[in-house]
Design goal:
The protein is built from 19 helices and seven strands. The protein has helices spanning about 1-25, 30-40, 40-45, 50-60, 85-90, 90-95, 95-115, 115-125, 130-140, 150-160, 165-180, 205-210, 225-240, 270-275, 310-320, 325-335, 355-365, 380-390, 405-415, and strands at about 150, 190, 250, 270, 280, 295, 305-310.
């Protein structure tokens, strides 16, 4: 009996010790397939000029960071997407007046400090200095925000477990190349999406758009303000920025407006909009844009400002694919350049949960009103389809998604 008890005690001790070891192990250590996948990237990294020594050093000890958003981990229930602030906050939350005014005040000081550099940037790339300063402010609070993650770890995790594996896998390969080309690992701090530097570039963007604007022989988007801002300007120029043109104009809309015409495909010259009752909300020079084609944007439906948006609006949006991001950057840039805040206040609308918006998008798609991806975001095409549903159903028309109308869709589908 004594031997049996002693044997059980040994087994129990071993179980406890194993449990302790497993609980102390890194999150990714239980998946050797991740390590095999990571090592399997070597041939492609070599094609980009990465040496074996650089590759081995970069991947040594890397374990996935399973706390990142947008991951699909086998055996783990999929967590609700945290998403970027641009897609989970209401316009009023994201575009707080205090935030915009404070950032613009800092931006004006930095604009004056770097005035000569910004003038040369605009001369070369056609992008106003106020715009790149506003991007700098939004992305990293003018370089004061310390990015929380190691870029290699983020890109490896997203490349293996993320929802856009091929995209992040390619960015990881370019991150290896950056290390090979002399970028210190300490500088490779990133957002959860792998963006790096003062103006938040992905590694492939660093190679497509990076500029040595200070003339020291290398592109430094971490410590050189001229390089970081010129790189942002070159990226906008490469995406089609139109020199001498504005990005958008806030307007007062006719009282009888049908908000379903806030459609990016509903284009006509700016002068035609103005001639049909749309009144500029600020005394902004319009002459250079009167012949430009514009569309109407109502980010909060009938509960906030309306804008006539031009081609440069979409160029900024290509930097970060969010209407609220463009409005943030554009408004801060306008304030730096001497203009004021939004004339119309943002209404206190409620942002629906991602799962609810996805359900709504599926209902709208089934009715043939929505033909975009199911992403749980209240973007312009979702708002447009929602407005079309309100209109077809005889509901009050405001083009802002609500749970009440989702319930109406559910009841209709159940009939």
């Amino acid at each position: 009996m004594t031997h049996r008890i002693f044997g059980r005690a040994i087994v129990a001790a071993i179980v406890v010790a194993l449990a302790a070891l497993l609980s102390a192990a890194p999150a990714g250590a239980a998946d050797p397939a991740f390590q095999a996948w990571l090592k399997g990237l070597w041939p492609e990294a070599a094609k980009l000029g990465v040496s074996r020594a650089t590759f081995d050093e970069a991947t040594r000890g890397i374990e996935p960071n399973l706390s990142l958003p947008d991951l699909v981990v086998p055996g783990r229930p999929e967590a609700p997407p945290r998403g970027q602030a641009e897609f989970v906050q209401t316009p009023a939350e994201y575009l707080r007046e205090s935030t915009l005014s404070n950032l613009a005040a800092q931006g004006r000081k930095l604009f004056l400090q770097h005035r000569d550099t910004l003038a040369r940037i605009e001369q070369r790339y056609g992008v106003p200095g106020a715009v790149v300063v506003a991007i700098w402010g939004r992305e990293t609070a003018f370089g004061t925000y310390k990015l929380p993650h190691d870029a290699i770890t983020v890109l490896a995790t997203q490349g293996y477990y993320g929802k856009r594996k091929d995209f992040f896998r390619n960015e990881l390969l370019y991150a290896f190349k950056m290390l090979q080309d002399g970028v210190p690992r300490a500088d490779m701090r990133a957002s959860w999406g792998g963006a790096i530097g003062m103006t938040q570039f992905l590694p492939s963007e660093f190679y497509r758009h990076g500029v040595d604007f200070d003339g020291d022989g290398h592109v430094d988007i971490w410590h050189s303000v001229p390089d970081a801002l010129a790189s942002a300007a070159q990226q906008l120029a490469h995406k089609g920025w139109q020199a001498g043109h504005h990005w958008a104009y806030e307007v007062k809309v006719p009282a009888s407006l049908d908000c379903t015409i806030a459609d990016p495909e509903h284009l006509k010259p700016l002068k035609d909009w103005l001639g049909s009752g749309y009144v500029p909300a600020a005394k902004t020079p319009l002459a250079s844009d009167l012949g430009e084609r514009a569309s109407l944007l109502m980010p909060a439906g009938r509960y906030g400002p309306a804008f006539l948006i031009l081609k440069n609006y979409y160029v900024i949006k290509d930097y970060n694919f969010s209407d609220l991001y463009v409005l943030f950057v554009g408004n801060v840039a306008d304030r730096i350049a001497g203009l004021g805040p939004f004339a119309e206040p943002w209404g206190k609308v409620v942002q629906m949960r991602t799962t609810e918006l996805e359900e709504m998008q599926r209902h709208l798609a089934a009715l043939g009103l929505y033909r975009d991806k199911i992403d749980g975001k209240a973007g312009m095409r979702t708002r447009l389809a929602f407005g079309a549903y309100q209109k077809a159903s005889g509901l009050a028309l405001d083009c802002w998604p609500t749970r009440a109308v989702l319930d109406h869709m559910r009841a209709r589908a159940a009939r």
